[in-house]
Design brief:
- This protein has five helices and two strands; from the N terminus they run H-H-H-H-H-E-E.
- By secondary structure, the protein is mainly alpha-helical.
- The protein has a domain of 58 residues.
- A two-stranded antiparallel ribbon has the order 1-2.
- Helix 3 crosses helix 4 and helix 4 runs antiparallel to helix 5.
- The longest helix has 34 residues.
């Protein structure tokens, strides 16, 4: 698809950092859009196994979701800027969704965020436990120094599932995984 975003000065009210932009100040399409393969994969998860998706449908969805992400992130970023913070967090995204009128997504996202944080906490504790047990078993070389070694530990985690259901039609349940 053609990038008709234009130069930053031409876009009213949008503030972007163009550090990864081209020399003329236009964001490269590959930096602005989600990878089309990922978009297609998510679309396929929702459709029946034998359903086909046209290239045009994937490109349209790619543009839409990329714009949606920019819209919500921009709102969250403005909030952080006003609060003199540099990092946008999950709570800021939830706030932005509510502010922009996407209230139906806020509670499921908060539940997902809570499960994600819980999972990350467990993973951090597992890593800390592995690290402290390694310290107790350290040996020293003939110079009285600990030998150098690289340790990579990955605590296994199950993918979180994000369930979204339309309250008006209970049969409309969506499952998103691997966020």
């Amino acid at each position: 698809m053609v990038d008709n975003m234009g130069k930053n000065s031409e876009r009213e009210g949008l503030k972007y950092d163009f550090t990864s932009s081209g020399e003329d100040g236009v964001i490269k399409e590959q930096d602005r859009l989600l990878p089309i393969a990922n978009v297609g994969r998510i679309m396929k998860q929702i459709l029946p196994p034998n359903a086909k998706i046209s290239k045009e449908a994937k490109e349209t969805m790619q543009e839409s979701v990329s714009e949606f992400i920019s819209f919500v992130t921009g709102e969250a970023s403005d909030k952080c800027h006003k609060e003199k913070r540099k990092t946008v967090n999950g709570d800021d995204i939830c706030w932005a969704l509510a502010t922009l009128g996407f209230d139906d997504y806020v509670e499921p996202l908060k539940r997902y965020l809570s499960k994600y944080r819980e999972s990350e906490g467990e993973r951090a504790n597992q890593t800390k436990t592995n690290y402290s047990s390694d310290e107790k078993n350290e040996t020293y070389n003939h110079h009285g120094e600990q030998p150098r070694k690289a340790t990579i530990s990955c605590a296994g985690s199950t993918p979180l599932k994000f369930n979204m259901s339309d309250k008006s039609n209970i049969s409309m349940s969506r499952r998103f995984s691997n966020f």
